[in-house]
Amino acid sequence: MAAADDDARRMLGGFIRAQRQMANLSLRQLSVLAKVSNPYLSQVERGLHEPSVRVLKSIGEALNLSAETLLEQAGLISHTESPDDQATESAIRADNRLTEAQRHALLGVYRSYVGDAGTEV
Length: 121
Known about the structure:
Elements: H1 2-22, H2 27-34, H3 38-45, H4 53-62, H5 67-73, H6 83-94, H7 100-116
Helix pairs in contact: 1-7, 2-4, 4-5
């Protein structure tokens, strides 16, 4: 079970890193905006530390993401996908023109937008 927890932390950290990079923020800038220490945020992004709900909400606010988006990424709340969500995400995953990092970032952006629109993702 520990391996699954490690994978989940790494995926969450990768998602946060991708969102930070898309926002053109340095690690230090995000740490200031989110009111968390630079080393702590670095550990979160590398999947070495599992952030609390409070920290996730703070990071979400700093990145203009809904709290639900980060809580879902952390596996703290579940979601149900509509057929449209599944089709859109499948199309993103299947697009060979995108790198893996681009796919991950695009999925994160998509989920943050549909989550902010009031639709469960």
